[in-house]
Specification:
- 2 copies of one chain form a homodimer.
- Chain A is built from 17 helices and 19 strands.
- Chain A has helices at 65-78, 138-151, 192-204, 243-250, 304-318, 336-340, 342-351, 355-372, 381-387, 405-411, 421-424, 433-437, 448-453, 471-475, 478-486, 491-499, 513-525; strands at 2-4, 8-10, 13-15, 36-39, 42-53, 95-103, 118-122, 129-135, 152-154, 161-166, 168-172, 178-184, 209-213, 268-272, 325-327, 376-380, 395-398, 415-418, 454-461.
- A 9-stranded mixed sheet of chain A has the order 1-4-11-7-8-6-5-10-9, covered by helices on one side.
- Chain A is elongated, with a radius of gyration of 24 Å.
- The relative contact order of chain A is 0.11.
- At the A-B interface, helix 3, helix 4, helix 14 and helix 17 of A face helix 3, helix 4, helix 14 and helix 17 of B.
Chain lengths: 550, 550
C-alpha cells in the first residue's frame, strides 16, 4: 500500500506526519495532489446502478447542487468510452454500488473561506460496497467527487469503469482559500458557453475563483441597469451580456437564473471594474466620463457623475455578485489627461492635489463606495505601492508587477493575492508550466501570521490575443500547475515548504511531469482543449505521438 | 423584400430563375447559403412554449432523430443569453408558436445520396403562427432546423429569441452529395468527446461525411474483434477505441449504442484502412504482417495472412460502418521493402510481378475483399494514376495530389472526390479561407454527365500536429468555406458557375467575408473554437477587437 502523508490540520484534527513520500508516488494520477493519500493495489468496478446515498447527511440539497455534481461525475467518467453492460461475470463484492456522501453543514452559502475539506474512502470487503465521502460543506463534497472521478478509469477488458488502487483513504483541503483564474471579456468578448466551459475546466483543477475582468478600455460588454447607455461601449450589439447573463454565470439572486453556473460548482465570481484607468469604453455611452473628447482616460476625477456611475454599477453588482470581494483595479493609471484638461487642472488646483494625490483620492473614494455596498476590496498593487497605508484595512492587494510585494503587503497587515506577471500570466506564452509550478506565493514570508494574510494566488488570462478560439489551450495545462501548488501540493515539496526556507526547496518539476501530462490528457478526454506540455504556452503537438508523452 | 433565386431542380420541380442576386444579399447571415432565399423585414419572437408539430408527416420518428434535432435547435439558440420570460407585452400575433415539420419519407436510413433537400417557410399574419418545414427525409429536415437556428438571434431589448427578416421562404438542397471532413486518429488519438464535438460542428456547416482515417503507420487505436492483438499497435492502453466506441460514433447496429452520434445528426462515417502503405502499426500485434523486422512497410504482399487480416477487419467493419463506401487508402506506397526482403522478392519472381504490378495486385485484391463485404470503394488517387483502368467500376477516386486528376477520373467514367492538398488540406496552415473558398471541384469539367460523377469534396485535417488541443481552430473557419461551396453556394457565384466557364467566374471572396465572420462568431457562441479569419489557419487574434472584424 502506497502512502503519502503530510502534517496538516484537517477538520479540527492534527494529523501526524507518519511518513515521507513513498517512492511509488508517481503512480498516483490525481491532480491537484491531495494533502494525504493512502491507497492499495486492488480494483473495484462501478455498478450499473451506481447511486448517490446521503443517509446521515445534514445538508438537504434543496437546490440540487450535490445531486447535479454527482450526475456530472457520472457524465465525465462515462464519456470516454461506451460501457458495455455485462456485469454477470463480476463477483458482486467487486462492484462499487455507489458513493455515500455525508455533509455536516446544512448551509450551502458559497463564500470566501468556506470549508472545502473532504475525506474520501473507497474500502474493500464491505457488502455492499460503497465509497464514503465526508465533508463539512457541499463544496468540499464536490471536490471529493472530483477526486473520486480521477480515481476512475475505463477498463478495456471488462468494459466498465474501474476504480484502481483500492482501498483509498484521501484527506484533503486547500492550501489557499483563494485559487483564481482571471478572464478578460473586454479585449475580446467571450460568449456565455465559452465562459461556462472555462468554469467546468476550473472545477477539474479545483480552482475556486473566476476573476471576471469584465470591462476595460477596449469595450464595455455588460449591462448596467442604472446606467443603460454604458454598454454602448460594447464592440457590437451582439457582444454584450445582460445582467441576467451575469447572474446565470454567478448564481441566482434577483435575476432569473437557470443553472447559476459557477456557484453550483463551488466557484466564486470576483467581478472587476478597473478604475480610474482602463475605463475608456465607459465614455461611449456617457462622454462626460472622459476628461475630454481628445483625452479619454483616466475617468474624470473632477466630475461627481463619475462617482455616481461607480456607485450605480456597484449597486447593480451587489444584486448579482455576492462574493465578499469586488475588484476595483487601480493599475497603470496615467494621469496626464487630468493635468492637460483645463477643467480638471483647475479642480486639482482648487483641491491642492497633485496628480498622485488625485489618483489616491479616486481610489479611496471608489473604495468607500464599494464598502458602502458591503464589499471588501481587491486592488491591483500600484495602489499599495503608492499609498498603502491609506488603503482600507479591508483591502486585498493584488500583486502583478513581479515578486516581492507580497512580503511587504502582509508585513503591513493587509491581505494579498499573488499573480506576478513573470510567472503567472497565461498570456505570456513563453512562461512554461514548470515556471508556473515553481512560483511559490509564500516566498520569503516566514511568519505564520503573515502567511495567513497571503490568501492565495491567481493565474491571469488577459485577452488581447484570446478569444473563443484559443482560450482553453492557453489556460491549460499551465493553470493546472498553479492549481497543484495552491490546492494540494506534491508531497515532497509540501513537506519541505512548510518548514524549509524557500531557497532550499526542491526545484525540479520533472518528478510531476507524468502526472501533469496525465491530467492534460484527462482534460482532453473531457472535451477541454488543453495543450501539450512540451514547449511554451498553447503549443501545437510537435510530432505524432501519445498524448501522455507530449 | 430581398430575393435570391437560382435556377435549380428541387423536389422534382424546375424552379425558374426569377432574379439576379439582390444587392442586400449581404444582410443575410446564413451559412452555407441556401439555393434560394426570399425574406422580408419584419420580426417574430419565439414563444415560451415553442413546440415541434408533426401533423401530416409520414415519418414516425421512432428513434427520436427529429425530436432530438428539435431539442438541439432550442439548445443552440438559447445558449448565448438568458431568456427573460416576460411575454406579456408581446402582441400574440408576433409570437412564433412552433415549427411544423412535414417529412414525406417514412424511412430514416442514412446513406450516400439520401435526399437532403428542405423547404422552410416562416410566414407572417397567421394565427397561430408556426414556421413550416417540409422535407423528403428526416435528414433534410435536420438541415432545415439548422438553417432556422441561424435565422434566430437573441434580442437585447425584448430579451427573447427573435426571428428577423420574416417572412422567410428558403428552398435548399446540397450541390454535392458528398461533403466530407477527414480526421486522423492515428497520428494523435482523439478522445470520443472530441470526435463528437467535431461532428456537432460539422452539423452547423451542413457537412455530411466524417472520413475517419482511423489507423496509419504511427498507431492502430481501434479494436478489431477478429484480430484482438492488432490494437497492441495503439500508443497506449488508454488511447484506444473499442468497437462499441466506434458504433457509438457511427450508429447502432449489433453493438450497444446510446446515442449513435453521427447518424442521428445526418452524418455518414467513412472508415479508412490505408493499405498497403501507412500500415506499419498493424505489425505490433502481428509482426508477420511486416515484410521483416527491419523493413516494416508496406504490408507483406506475399503473405496470405495479410489478406486474411484485411478480410477480418472489413468483416468487423461491416457490422458497424454501414456507409456504402469503405476507404482503402492506397497512397504513397514505397515498395522497396518488398524487393529487399528475400521471401517477398522470391514471391514476386514466382508470380512474375514487378513492384508496380505487386502494388496493383495488392490494391485490387483488397478491393475484391471490400466488394465481398458489400462495400463500394474509395481509394486515393495514386491507384487511379497507376492502373485506373483496372480498378473496380465501384471505385471512387479520392484526389489529393493537386488539381487536374478529377477531370481524368470522371472522363474515365469513375466517380471522384476532390481534396487537392494545395487548397483543401487543413493542416496546410498557410492556405487561407479564401483559397479554400475558391477551390472549384468542377474545374474544367463541363459535360453534365461527367459533372455528376464528381460526387463532392472533402477537407482534410491530418493529425501530425493536431490533437484534442487544436483540432477545432485548425478546422474552422476554413472548412466552412468549402462547405458553403459544396452545400449551398453564394448566389452570385452559383448562378454563374452553372453556365459559365470556370475561368470567367467571379473570383473575389471579399463579398462573403462578413457572412463567414458571422458564422465563425456563431461557432464560438456555440462553444466551437473557430479561429479568426484574418491570417493563416489557426491564427490567434492579432489585437483586441470585435469577433466580427477579425
Amino acid at each position: 500500500m502506497g502512502k503519502i502523508t503530510v502534517q496538516r490540520i484537517f477538520l479540527g484534527f492534527l494529523l501526524q506526519l507518519i511518513g515521507l513520500c513513498a517512492a511509488d508516488l508517481n503512480r498516483l494520477n490525481i491532480w491537484p495532489m491531495p494533502v494525504s493519500v493512502q491507497y492499495g493495489h486492488q480494483s473495484l468496478y462501478l455498478s450499473k446502478e451506481f447511486v448517490l446515498k446521503t443517509e446521515g447527511t445534514k445538508y438537504a440539497d434543496a437546490s440540487g447542487i450535490l445531486k447535479d455534481g454527482f450526475s456530472r461525475l457520472l457524465d465525465v467518467v462515462e464519456a470516454a468510452h461506451v460501457i458495455e453492460l455485462n456485469y454477470s461475470h463480476f463477483d458482486p463484492s467487486l462492484l462499487l454500488q455507489g458513493i455515500h456522501v455525508v455533509i455536516l453543514s446544512p448551509n450551502d452559502e458559497l463564500q470566501h473561506g468556506v470549508d472545502e475539506s473532504y475525506k474520501l474512502l473507497v474500502p474493500m470487503n464491505r457488502k455492499p460496497v460503497y465509497a464514503h465521502l465526508e465533508a463539512q460543506t457541499v463544496y468540499g463534497a464536490l471536490h471529493g467527487l472530483q477526486t473520486f472521478s480521477q480515481c476512475c478509469q475505463f477498463n478495456f477488458t471488462s468494459r466498465v469503469i474501474e476504480v484502481r488502487q483500492v482501498p483509498w483513504t484521501i484527506i484533503d483541503q486547500p492550501r489557499f482559500s483563494y485559487r483564481g483564474l482571471l478572464i478578460d471579456t473586454s479585449r475580446h468578448y467571450q460568449p456565455l458557453p465559452m465562459i461556462k466551459r472555462v468554469i467546468d475546466s476550473m472545477v477539474y483543477a479545483k480552482l475556486n475563483v473566476l476573476h471576471w475582468h469584465i470591462v476595460d478600455s477596449q469595450s464595455f460588454p455588460l449591462e448596467i441597469p442604472s446606467y443603460p447607455k454604458i454598454w454602448d461601449g460594447a464592440y457590437s450589439i451582439a457582444e454584450r451580456y445582460t445582467m441576467a447573463d451575469a447572474a446565470e454565470i454567478v448564481r441566482q439572486v434577483t435575476y432569473s437564473c437557470f443553472s447559476c453556473y459557477a456557484q453550483r460548482r463551488g466557484i466564486n465570481v470576483l467581478a472587476e471594474i478597473d478604475v480610474p484607468g482602463h475605463a475608456l469604453s465607459w465614455g461611449t455611452g456617457y462622454p462626460s466620463l472622459w476628461p475630454s473628447k481628445d483625452c479619454k482616460e483616466p475617468l474624470d476625477v473632477s466630475n461627481e457623475f463619475t462617482f455616481k456611475v461607480i456607485d450605480g454599477i456597484l449597486s447593480d453588482f451587489s444584486k448579482v455578485f455576492k462574493y465578499r470581494f469586488i475588484h476595483l483595479g487601480g493599475d497603470e493609471v496615467n494621469t496626464s489627461c487630468w493635468t492637460t484638461t483645463p477643467h480638471i487642472r483647475n479642480w486639482l488646483k482648487q483641491r491642492g492635489f497633485n496628480e498622485s494625490e488625485a489618483y489616491q483620492y479616486f481610489v479611496l473614494r471608489a473604495q468607500d463606495i464599494a464598502l458602502s455596498h458591503g464589499y471588501e476590496i481587491v486592488n491591483w498593487e500600484e495602489t499599495f505601492n503608492n499609498f498603502g497605508n491609506k488603503l482600507s484595512r479591508k483591502t486585498v492587494v493584488h500583486n502583478w508587477l513581479g515578486g516581492g510585494v507580497a512580503k511587504q503587503v502582509v508585513a503591513a497587515g493587509l491581505r494579498c493575492i499573488v499573480s506576478n506577471q513573470d510567472k503567472w500570466y497565461l498570456d505570456h506564452l513563453d512562461t512554461t508550466w514548470q515556471e508556473f509550478y515553481m512560483n511559490e506565493p509564500l516566498t520569503n514570508i516566514t511568519d505564520p501570521k503573515q502567511q495567513k494574510l497571503l490568501i492565495g494566488g491567481e493565474v491571469c488570462m488577459w485577452g488581447e490575443h484570446i478569444d473563443g478560439s484559443d482560450i482553453e489551450q492557453t489556460i491549460w495545462p499551465r493553470a493546472a500547475a498553479a492549481a497543484d501548488l495552491s490546492f494540494g501540493l506534491f508531497c515532497h515539496l509540501d513537506v519541505e515548504r512548510l518548514w524549509t526556507p524557500y531557497d532550499k526547496l526542491a526545484k525540479d518539476p520533472r518528478q510531476i511531469t507524468a502526472r501533469l501530462a496525465h491530467f492534460r490528457c484527462l482534460l482532453n478526454q473531457r472535451g477541454v482543449a488543453a495543450a501539450p506540455l512540451a514547449g511554451p504556452g498553447r503549443v501545437a503537438p510537435e510530432e505524432p505521438g501519445s498524448c501522455y508523452m507530449q
